[in-house]
Fold this sequence. Notes:
alpha+beta, disordered C terminus, globular, six-stranded antiparallel barrel, eight-stranded mixed β-sheet, Elongation Factor Tu (Ef-tu), domain 3, Aminopeptidase
Amino acid sequence: MQKKPYEFLLSLLECHSPSGHEAAATRVWLDYVTPFADEVMTDAYGNAFAVLNPKAKQSVMFDGHSDEVGMMVTYIDEEGYLWVSAIGGIDPKVLPGMRVLVHAPDGDIRGVVGTIAPHMQTGDLATRTIQMNEIYVDIGAKDKADAGRWVRPGVTVTIDHGPVRLLGDTLCARACDNRIGIWSSAEGLRRCKAAGVKHKVIACSNVQEEIGLHGAAMAAYRWDPDVCLVVDVGNSTDFPDTSKQLRNDIRLGAGPCQRIGSAAHPAVVDRLDEVAAAKKINLQRIPIPVRSGTNAGSIYITRKGIPCGILSTPNRYMHSPSETIDLKDLDAIPTLMTEFVKSIKPGETFTVHKGGRLK
Length: 359
């Protein structure tokens, strides 16, 4: 990965932007795309768009979501502890003892998720699974009044983990899901610009995926593209206790993935296979018999139906503070996106008809 795109990725991963509060990541994304986009804009809820060739007839949308899972303060007790609820699918099992940032009105406050030492656990505490309603944050406040001077119910909380490099091309970070998606939408647009594509390309940094795919629905309705490429992380199955039987053999370092089934349009799937083969990019396959688990779920049913392809970076430990990806897998995705756009002939549409697929 080249230096500037890599630095952009790190900047995105340093942002704390839980669902409904994505402004920090959106600002970084807009700063990156503005120099090479023909148009840049945002909407009422914070979705951000960068457009190339805005007057072209055929349009391709690149979707990624800027939000991450997190927590929200719902109550401050008499001792000054902050009780929280989940924003999206955060796993309470990984939270005890974690350092967090409380995004208070006057600036971030450091805290820690409370936990009980093993030798102090009584009853079933040592054996049962902790639930989200047992999670509280200690900010060092003396009591409720002291905590209330800094924090109020409704502020968000995120885990205080930044990106780190492991061996080789492996990167570990909070919020790879889905900063890699908005990295790809921006970098895909930049590479389309460099390649001189003539079609209209709309790159998106969409909000609120983790709580219902809401931002993507707004974007799809607004732009009504001819075809959309959705980029999100995909669960790898190359570590203990995962099921290859359910999700296929998905490995870090073996190339990006595309999802097969459900919202993934067969003709778009075929085209992505073709451009991947032409560029000698190994494209792993993630079966999705029912739901894709991505923004494609709201995009493909918008208006008359929008053909979607779903590209993914294999990801270990999803929705944990230490999501882990391979940079080479990720860097191949904007190349696929660019080659896909270049492959679209004037007037070509992606449709499925009785008797088979139209290519």
